[in-house]
């Protein structure tokens, strides 16, 4: 078994426009003081680092990670490119809503090309940082047609997935050539949002080795998907693990779709670790048992608790659940040496 690394923390929800959350060195000192040992860095956040420089300069990355290690003893776990991944494919219904994710003035083709270029830069930066996975969203064109009413024209979903595969395959190939994987976080709003859609994508990419997963049980639980069984099915593809809690409390008024309510009033809502319904003890045990080699990374998203409290409690929450994998079987003290003759004797086969 493998000992899971951690605790780590994703910085996207930590960044603010005021101290100590507006600068990578100040943020790093703060999260280190809480007990975190690794950080996951969002590639779109220019207040934290320069993606273009990281992609083109190994010395920039060495200096950046070396300074963090020296000042705070933090490890850079990986880069996360969720926003750029989302923009690889966008249905026109979301043109305006996603416009803040990319430079102004881009048409649909230019937006997709810009996103692809950003992801290639993220791959090169990962090589320079010596990290192996990039967490992403898939984007997609089929999400508005999630519910089969009105009836979808035959082949509509296949066409959407064929286009998604067409756009992602060159990026997957580029990542594989550089020893990097993309960890798709299965997320509503993207065409890869559950195990079935991920399997369809895998099938259409011929099981591409760079098409991996960032496991986040919260999104699976809010879809009422078995997030434990999911690990058993896809354990060989899981390259990152977000520790994010959620709860689903259906009522006579709403269920999975949420009735257009704000987060605090939805039946399904995100919570700080330990405040929701996710069985993290089972998750940590199963990931360790199945040989997960990565980090446990806090992603704070809670509609009730503050970021500061969530981050403070999150480090201890993760640390308490890290399993130092055993190198010995607990009843080794009673072991009997291998002896073929003795075994045959025990089985009553001595005279045969």
Explain this structure.
The protein has 352 residues and is an alpha/beta fold. It has a single domain (5-346), classed as TIM Barrel (Alpha-Beta Barrel). Helix content is 39%, strand content 14%. It is built from 12 helices and 10 strands. It has helices at residues 24-34, 51-56, 58-72, 82-86, 108-129, 156-177, 195-204, 217-221, 227-234, 280-289, 307-321, 340-346; strands spanning 5-10, 38-42, 75-80, 133-136, 181-184, 211-215, 238-243, 245-248, 268-271, 295-298. The strands form 2 sheets. It has an 8-stranded parallel barrel with strand order 1-2-3-4-5-6-7-10, surrounded by 5 helices. Strands 8-9 form a two-stranded antiparallel ribbon. The radius of gyration is 23 Å and the shape is globular. The protein starts with a strand and ends in a 6-residue tail after the last helix. The model has no long low-confidence stretch (mean pLDDT 96).
- How many structural domains in the coordinates? 1
Report low-confidence residues grouped into runs of 5 or more. Answer: none
Averaged pLDDT: 96
The helix content, as a percent range, equals 25-40%
CATH class: Alpha Beta
Q: What is the string of helix and strand elements?
A: EHEHHEHHEHEHEHHEEEHEHH
Classified in CATH, the superfamily is: Divalent-metal-dependent TIM barrel enzymes
CATH architecture: Alpha-Beta Barrel
Q: Major sheet: order of its strands? A: 1-2-3-4-5-6-7-10
The shape, in one word, is: globular
The major beta sheet can be summarized as:
8 strands, parallel, barrel
Q: Nearest-angstrom radius of gyration?
A: 23 Å
What is the tally of beta strands? 10
% residues in beta strands: 5-15%
Total count of helical runs of at least 4 residues: 12
What class, by secondary structure content? alpha/beta
């Amino acid at each position: 078994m493998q000992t899971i690394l951690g605790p780590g923390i994703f910085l996207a929800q930590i960044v603010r426009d005021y101290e100590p959350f507006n600068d990578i060195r100040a943020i790093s000192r703060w999260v280190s003081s809480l007990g975190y040992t690794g950080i996951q860095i969002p590639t779109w956040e220019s207040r934290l680092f320069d993606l273009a420089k990281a992609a083109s300069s190994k010395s920039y990355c060495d200096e950046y990670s070396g300074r963090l290690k020296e000042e705070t003893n933090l490890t850079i776990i990986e880069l996360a490119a969720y926003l750029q991944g989302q923009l690889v494919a966008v249905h026109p219904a979301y043109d305006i809503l996603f416009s803040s994710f990319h430079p102004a003035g881009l048409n649909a083709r230019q937006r997709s090309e810009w996103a692809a270029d950003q992801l290639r830069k993220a791959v090169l930066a990962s090589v320079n940082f010596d990290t192996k996975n990039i967490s992403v969203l898939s984007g997609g064109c089929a999400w508005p047609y999630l519910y089969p009413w009105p009836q979808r024209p035959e082949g509509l979903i296949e066409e959407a997935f064929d286009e998604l595969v067409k756009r992602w395959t060159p990026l997957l190939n580029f990542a594989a050539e550089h020893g990097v994987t993309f960890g798709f976080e299965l997320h509503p709003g993207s065409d890869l949002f559950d195990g079935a859609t991920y399997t369809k994508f895998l099938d259409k990419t011929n099981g591409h080795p760079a098409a991996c997963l960032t496991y986040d049980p919260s999104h699976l639980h809010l879809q009422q998907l078995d997030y434990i069984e999911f690990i058993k099915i896809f354990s060989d593809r899981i390259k990152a693990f977000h520790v994010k809690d959620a709860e689903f409390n259906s009522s006579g008024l709403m269920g999975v779709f949420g009735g257009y309510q704000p987060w605090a009033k939805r039946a399904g809502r995100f919570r700080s670790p330990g405040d929701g319904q996710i069985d993290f003890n089972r998750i940590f045990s199963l990931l360790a048992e199945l040989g997960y080699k990565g980090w446990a990374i806090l992603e704070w998203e809670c509609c009730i608790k503050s970021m500061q409290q969530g981050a403070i409690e999150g480090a201890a929450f993760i640390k308490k659940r890290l399993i130092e994998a055993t190198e010995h079987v607990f009843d080794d003290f009673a072991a009997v040496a291998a002896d073929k003759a003795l075994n045959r004797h025990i089985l009553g086969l001595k005279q045969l």
